Amino acid sequence: MVAETLTIAVDFDGTIVEDEYPKIGKPNIFAFETLKKLQNKGHRLILWTYRYGRELDEAVAFCKENGITFYAVNKSFPEEQFDPKYSRKINADLFIDDRNLGGMMGWGEIYQKLVGGDATQFQRPKKKKSWFGF
Predict the structure, then answer these.
(1) DSSP classification of residue 8
(2) What CATH number does the domain containing 51 carry?
(3) pLDDT digit string, tens, across residues 72-114
């Protein structure tokens, strides 16, 4: 059985690094280790951040220096075209963000749930086919 890969959107400020916007804060403990492990398992990571322009370029470069190259940045997929000055919702299976309801769980807990545990609990349920949309 081949495990399904997930598309995971990850915020930058306050999530991957401590929130020091517009500067880049210190990496949050286990953030890069967990992201690397997720990529090694075949999951697609999208950097989903408020940053754009020079600040975005700095964040992408910082992540690359720490071993993470994203599948896409502020887009659902690399070829998607839109004006990057405007934020919009993207298509992802999971979002990792410090603004979650209930707050940001630690990267150690994220690691256990997605890498060390059973990641199938996060897969989208299969939709039943029917004549009606409910």
Answers:
(1) E
(2) 3.40.50.1000
(3) 999 888 877 776 666 677 889 999 999 987 888 889 898 888 8
